[in-house]
Specification:
globular; 4 helices; alpha+beta
Length: about 150
């Protein structure tokens, strides 16, 4: 039934992901209908832990078109994330002590039909890290091409 709804491609480019967590999202009204219609953007979203609760801020869920304006939802409101207490404590400790950040990686629908958010515990990359990663990817691609050419002959 499920599958990936929205992917934050920029996150893996700008951050090195050290660990991932699955979180539920507290949704209201027509938000799940918009998510199932793929009307979601993770571009400016980030996660934060405030007052022992996890929140996603900046997640844009477009208003549902087939509903009256009165019953629709606010597109960029802060939404609460559903995590176990031990996970929240672990994330809080790592973000405070090690200087890591919480980055939303993707939104998907699981087998039970629930919207889930994959969070990454990430460290920001420097520009030279990105350049090295691009160079490694290019060299790997050229090696694969050379191997494929050698196999064809």
């Amino acid at each position: 039934m499920g599958g990936t709804i929205a992917l934050n491609r920029r996150a893996r480019h700008e951050f090195s992901i050290e660990d991932t967590f699955e979180a539920g999202i507290v949704l209201r009204g027509t938000e799940i209908k918009s998510i199932r219609a793929h009307k979601v953007s993770l571009a400016d979203a980030y996660a934060r832990i405030e007052k022992d609760e996890a929140w996603i801020i900046g997640l844009h869920i477009a208003p549902y078109e087939s509903t009256d304006v009165r019953f629709n939802h606010e597109p960029k409101r802060a939404r609460k994330l559903l995590l176990h207490r031990s996970e929240i404590d672990e994330l809080l400790g790592k973000t405070k002590a090690k200087g890591l950040t919480l980055v939303p990686l993707r939104i998907y629908i699981n087998d039970q039909g629930k919207a889930k958010l994959e969070l990454g515990l990430a460290r920001g990359k420097q520009t030279w890290d990105r350049r090295r990663e691009i160079a490694e990817r290019d060299s790997r691609r050229e090696m694969d091409r050379a191997v494929a050419d050698a196999r064809r002959r």
